[in-house]
Design a protein that fits this description.
Largest sheet: 10 strands, mixed
Keywords: Membrane, Transmembrane, Transmembrane helix
Oligomer: single chain
Order of helices and strands: EHHEEEEEEHHEEEHHHHHEE
Mean pLDDT: 80
Radius of gyration: 43 Å
Strand content: 5-15%
Number of helices: 9
Structural class: alpha+beta
Distance between the termini: 101 Å
Number of strands: 12
Length: 527
């Protein structure tokens, strides 16, 4: 974009980065901080090292800590101070000055660390202390693109940039000027990406303000920018007074939480759908279970061990989605509260904060409703998980009972066969002629005739085998005979007594029987 038709200079432009990082997580309990809670302050120290600011390199040592040496305080109802806590111990903010490598102009800066309830927030402001600065010099307010997305400052909840600048000349097309500003501030991002979504616009404290958002789902890659062009003397007065600051940073914090929570809900939704897909594969695999009982029972038992674990994990994702809905709804209420505060301090009949209101509507009607729709579909899957477990458990119990029954039959048959073989062996001395001289113990197989021991052994074996076969047939035939009796009795019973329903209210029931029919009696409706 050519800047030849735009104002060439600004007065005292400043760029503020608001970064929000989670300190406490509900899942871990508000007493414990998240694993990387201090990451934001470590990144600020890294920025100080890059800019050569010694005071910023030791930021963590200057921050307030609790009794457990953790930065900040417990964000409970008993600590209302945590709703907006300035974290520096001896001063309000750290000020510094630096000269970017690619610029001859010195910049000044302030770092203002905060705790907003369960969230760490930092305000990093870089400004030119000059009355006249060319538009091309705005890029040095983001030196070496250190503040750009996916660079040094990567806050977990997200970031918002606010450029406040006063054009030194009258501007006809303020949006075109705002477009040129963000292209200059973020040279590493392609202009077509920066301007892919048309900016929202409004008026705040008497001057035009434009909102840009590239709408990346990943908070570390997203870019949300407000360009506030100071075109009214009243704006500079109210901005210096600063009454807007606290409700604005709180509103932006709520906005970041809403977007972050929705992004987390997309991850939960995808994970739950992945588990649901695994369940669908199990349902389809029912048709391909092994044909043999032992293999089928083994496979079903394996499923019975796997699916409850999947069900538990699936339920956890559903619980997280419900928590995400509550989190977004809570932050929507807080966002609306801070927006009303901004409305109260705005200039009546001139300011227009409709673009902030649009995000509120978008959160209520799109983000929250989308999670509710996803949850509705996934709850059906939870019922399927439970039905699947019940079905498999029932099949396993039936298969196991049948297997145990067959085992019992086998044990009975074997017991009878062993008993019969034992009787034969015990009674052998009474019906086999004993001739010790013919029993050659040391040469049992040298004679053409069987010796007594071998004969008893053979007879016992075949007796036991024959007994096992006979008992097995008898046991199995009991089930077959019972089945035949049931079938025969049901057939005979049906033929002996069959009834046909009447075709009209006055027609008696017709009974067909192999015996003589009893006399029919019809009850008159007049009685």
């Amino acid at each position: 974009m050519s800047n030849t038709d735009l104002p060439a200079k600004f007065a005292n432009p400043k760029l503020t980065l608001f970064a929000f990082h989670l300190r406490n997580n509900l899942a871990q309990g508000l007493e414990e901080t998240v694993e990387n809670a201090n990451l934001l302050w470590e990144q600020c120290q890294n920025l100080g090292q890059k800019l050569g600011v010694n005071r910023l390199e030791t930021l963590i040592s200057k921050l307030k800590k609790d009794n457990n040496n953790k930065i900040g305080i417990f964000p409970g109802n008993e600590n209302p101070v945590s709703n907006y806590l300035e974290l520096l111990t001896s001063e309000k903010f750290i000020d510094f000055s630096a000269t970017p490598n690619s610029s001859s102009l010195k910049i000044r800066g302030e770092v203002y660390p905060l705790q907003i309830h369960d969230t760490f927030a930092v305000d990093i402001t870089l400004r030119y202390p000059y009355f006249s600065v060319e538009i091309a010099q705005l890029s040095h307010l983001n030196p070496e693109s250190y503040l750009s997305p996916n660079q040094i400052i990567q806050a977990s909840l997200g970031k918002t940039f606010l450029l406040f600048a006063q054009p030194l000349e009258k501007v006809e097309d303020l949006q075109k000027l705002a477009n040129a500003c963000i292209i200059t501030l973020f040279p590493t991002i392609k202009p077509e990406k920066l301007l892919h979504y048309p900016p929202s616009s409004g008026y705040f404290l008497g001057s035009a303000i434009f909102e840009y958002d590239i709408r990346e789902e990943n908070s570390s890659k997203n870019l949300h920018v407000l360009v506030w062009l100071n075109c009214d003397a009243k704006t500079e007065e109210l901005e210096t007074e600063g009454s807007y600051y606290q409700p604005l940073i709180n509103l932006l914090c709520c906005r970041s939480k809403i977007i972050y929570t929705y992004t987390q809900s997309r991850w939960c939704n995808n994970q739950a759908r992945r588990l649901y897909k695994q369940l669908e594969e199990k349902v389809a695999a029912f048709k391909t279970l092994p044909s043999t009982r032992v293999e089928r029972l083994t496979e079903l038992k394996r499923w019975l061990a796997e699916i409850p674990e999947l069900t538990l994990e699936y339920s956890r994702y559903l619980r997280d989605l419900e928590v995400h809905i509550k989190t977004i709804e809570t932050n929507i209420k807080n966002y609306e509260l801070f927006l009303n505060t901004l409305h109260n301090i705005s200039i009546k009949d001139k300011d227009n904060l409709e673009f902030f209101q649009q995000f509120l509507k978008y959160s209520e009607e799109t983000l929250t409703e989308q999670i509710k729709v996803d949850l509705g579909y996934l709850n059906v899957g939870k019922q399927l998980f439970e039905q699947m477990i019940g079905t498999i458990r029932g099949i396993v119990e039936i298969e196991q009972a049948e297997s145990d029954r067959n085992l019992q039959k086998t044990i009975q048959a074997v017991g009878f066969s062993i008993g019969a073989a034992g009787i034969v062996a015990t009674s052998a001395p009474y019906w086999i002629k004993q001739n010790p001289r013919e029993i050659l113990i040391n040469k049992p197989f040298t004679s053409h005739s069987l010796n007594t021991f071998t004969l008893v052994l053979v007879l016992s074996f075949f007796t036991g085998l024959a007994t096992w076969v006979i008992i097995s047939v008898i046991i199995n035939s009991k089930n077959w005979i019972a089945g035949v009796k049931y079938w025969f009795s049901s057939k005979v019973g049906n033929k002996k007594n069959q009834a046909s329903l009447p075709s009209s209210a006055n027609q008696p029931v017709q009974i067909t029987s192999g015996q003589k029919e009893p006399e029919q009696t019809s009850i008159s409706q007049n009685n």
